[in-house]
From TrEMBL:
GO terms for molecular function: peptidoglycan L,D-transpeptidase activity; transferase activity. SUPFAM superfamilies: L,D-transpeptidase catalytic domain-like, PGBD-like. The lineage of its organism: Bacteria, Bacillati, Actinomycetota, Actinomycetes, Propionibacteriales. It holds the Pfam family PG_binding_1. Residues 167-279 form the L,D-TPase catalytic domain. InterPro entries: LD-transpeptidase (IPR050979), LD_TPept_cat_dom (IPR005490), Peptidoglycan-bd-like (IPR002477), PGBD-like_sf (IPR036365), PGBDSf (IPR036366), Transpep_catalytic_dom (IPR038063). GO terms for cellular component: extracellular region. Pathway: Cell wall biogenesis; peptidoglycan biosynthesis. This is ErfK/YbiS/YcfS/YnhG family protein.
Amino acid sequence: MRTGNWVRGMSAVRHVMAGAVVAAAATGMMVYGLEGTASSATAAPAAPVASTDLKTVPFEVSGELPIYPKALWSNGATSPDVRKVEARLIQLKLLDKRWLDASFGTSTRSAVKKFQTSKGIPALGYVDQNTWDQLKAATREPTQTELFPPPPVVNGRPLDPRCATGVSLCIDKTSRKLRYVVDGAVKMQFDVRFGAQKTATREGGFSVGWKSRNHVSKLYDSPMPYAMFFSGGQAVHYSSDFAARGYAGGSHGCVNVRDLAKIKWLFDQVKVGDKVIVYRS
């Protein structure tokens, strides 16, 4: 009997304690709200926050915002007027002749910056009216020959006009000749052969992407010494097979040279970025 009374007593205590917990929770919800903040009905007004406790991020504009002059010609522009700008920059020796192409690229932009700096005007890198006025004052009107240098003529046949300026490997598939041309002057000429019908040498305007003196083709496991790559895996290089068999064979798309002494010399002259023009005359 005592044991039963004790159990019933403890049960009653547990019920009383549970009720107290529920009541306390309800009171808390009424006072502080569900999110733990004081209810507007019962909460005391919050103490004012001192202004020194607030953190602000300063923002101000000093002076006037710069207003840039309107660009007449800028990076990416292509027009006959750009060619005139380039021709005048060439007169001042600020731009290489190879970039006389009527296209406003990074080399033209660099030359414009140099000119602007020399005149004490902002080096914006594009041609505004003030820059154009000063450039005209510092140069003369370009001649037709300066604007459109005539292509060099070799053996009575003109080279591709793209070979008239700068440094280029001018490769004629019709005459099977490679000519190393500098500012329209042919410095050396080479016999060359090209790819077979299924692996034709690509035609167009390219540039030397990279060079490899003792290159070996991973695809064909064949030596390609003095290789100057211009279009993917296609390159100008020495070919012992061409030296031995002549035009009886063909390449896998490369431009083969058979004169070892000449291509050694050419390899040392050519720089990455030089033009490669493959065409038919």
